[in-house]
Amino acid sequence: MTKRIAFLASDAKVAQTARDSLVKRYGNVAPRDADVVVALGGDGFMLHTLHNMQHLDTPVYGMNRGTIGFLMNEFHETDLMERLATAVEEVINPLAMLALDQSGKLHEALAINEVSLLRAGPQAARLKISVDGRVRMAELVCDGALLSTPAGSTAYNYSAHGPILPIGADVLALTAIAAFRPRRWRGALLPKNAKVRIDVLDADKRPVMADADSVSFPDIDWVEIRSEPSIQHRLLFDPGHGLEERLISEQFN
C-alpha cells in the first residue's frame, strides 16, 4: 500500500532542495492527511516538527539535511518507500514543565529533550532540588541543572557530562551544569514517573532562566517537571539505526 507522505523541511537551502525533489518524485499531502511525515533538516527541526505534530498520531521519519542528525536517518532520495515500509518505530514522551517567575506568572511548556535552569547573571545559581515532595538537595551551587529524557540524553545533558540513557530504561537524568558545591556531584538517575521541583534560592541576586527545548522564560522562582505519558511522539528509524542503537553506539565513540 502506497503511503501518503507530508514532506516538511527546514529553511536551509539544502533541505528545501531535497523537499522539492522528493515532492516531485513521491507527491505530497498535508500533515493531517498523511500516513507519515518526512522531516528534512537537523535535530532542531525534528524537535520543531514533533512539537507541531503532537496533536496528531502520525509517525515522523527524519532525513538529515542539517548539521546534527542524532534523531535523523541518512538522506537518500530513491528508496524512500522501501525504507518507510521497513522502518522501526520508537515512542517517546516529553517532559511537562510548570514554572513560576518572580512576577507571579505561571508558564507551561513541553520538552522532548530536556528542561534546564541556567544562571542569567554573573553569579552562580543556588538551587534547591526536591523529588516527589522530598528535599533531596538543600543547596546546589552551579551554573545550572537540567532534567533530560532518554531521547535528549545525548544532547545538552551529554555535553554537561550527564549519562546516556537507553530508550527503554524508563528513567530521567538529573544533571548539574558546572557544579561548584557539592563540587563532585554529577547528578542522579530518577524514575520516569518522578516529579522534580527546583527552587531558585536568592532569585533576586542570582537570577535564573528556565528553558524547555530552547523556549526560554526569565527570572524564575521555581519549576516543576514531570514526564507526560499522555503525549506520545512516534519516530521512525531505519532497522539497526534506531535510537536504542544510537544511544549504545554513542557511548563507544
TrEMBL record:
<dbReference type="GO" id="GO:0019674">
    <property type="term" value="P:NAD+ metabolic process"/>
</dbReference>
<comment type="function">
    <text>Involved in the regulation of the intracellular balance of NAD and NADP, and is a key enzyme in the biosynthesis of NADP. Catalyzes specifically the phosphorylation on 2'-hydroxyl of the adenosine moiety of NAD to yield NADP.</text>
</comment>
<dbReference type="InterPro" id="IPR017437">
    <property type="entry name" value="ATP-NAD_kinase_PpnK-typ_C"/>
</dbReference>
<dbReference type="GO" id="GO:0051287">
    <property type="term" value="F:NAD binding"/>
</dbReference>
<dbReference type="InterPro" id="IPR002504">
    <property type="entry name" value="NADK"/>
</dbReference>
<keyword id="KW-0808">Transferase</keyword>
<comment type="similarity">
    <text>Belongs to the NAD kinase family.</text>
</comment>
<dbReference type="GO" id="GO:0005524">
    <property type="term" value="F:ATP binding"/>
</dbReference>
<feature type="binding site">
    <location>
        <begin position="154"/>
        <end position="159"/>
    </location>
    <ligand>
        <name>NAD(+)</name>
    </ligand>
</feature>
<keyword id="KW-0963">Cytoplasm</keyword>
<feature type="binding site">
    <location>
        <position position="48"/>
    </location>
    <ligand>
        <name>NAD(+)</name>
    </ligand>
</feature>
<feature type="binding site">
    <location>
        <begin position="43"/>
        <end position="44"/>
    </location>
    <ligand>
        <name>NAD(+)</name>
    </ligand>
</feature>
<dbReference type="GO" id="GO:0046872">
    <property type="term" value="F:metal ion binding"/>
</dbReference>
<dbReference type="GO" id="GO:0005737">
    <property type="term" value="C:cytoplasm"/>
</dbReference>
<dbReference type="Pfam" id="PF20143">
    <property type="entry name" value="NAD_kinase_C"/>
</dbReference>
<keyword id="KW-0547">Nucleotide-binding</keyword>
<dbReference type="GO" id="GO:0006741">
    <property type="term" value="P:NADP+ biosynthetic process"/>
</dbReference>
<feature type="binding site">
    <location>
        <begin position="113"/>
        <end position="114"/>
    </location>
    <ligand>
        <name>NAD(+)</name>
    </ligand>
</feature>
<dbReference type="GO" id="GO:0003951">
    <property type="term" value="F:NAD+ kinase activity"/>
</dbReference>
<keyword id="KW-0520">NAD</keyword>
<feature type="active site" description="Proton acceptor">
    <location>
        <position position="43"/>
    </location>
</feature>
<dbReference type="Pfam" id="PF01513">
    <property type="entry name" value="NAD_kinase"/>
</dbReference>
<feature type="binding site">
    <location>
        <position position="178"/>
    </location>
    <ligand>
        <name>NAD(+)</name>
    </ligand>
</feature>
<keyword id="KW-0418">Kinase</keyword>
<dbReference type="InterPro" id="IPR016064">
    <property type="entry name" value="NAD/diacylglycerol_kinase_sf"/>
</dbReference>
<protein>
    <recommendedName>
        <fullName>NAD kinase</fullName>
        <ecNumber>2.7.1.23</ecNumber>
    </recommendedName>
</protein>
<feature type="binding site">
    <location>
        <position position="143"/>
    </location>
    <ligand>
        <name>NAD(+)</name>
    </ligand>
</feature>
<dbReference type="InterPro" id="IPR017438">
    <property type="entry name" value="ATP-NAD_kinase_N"/>
</dbReference>
<keyword id="KW-0521">NADP</keyword>
<feature type="binding site">
    <location>
        <position position="151"/>
    </location>
    <ligand>
        <name>NAD(+)</name>
    </ligand>
</feature>
<keyword id="KW-0067">ATP-binding</keyword>
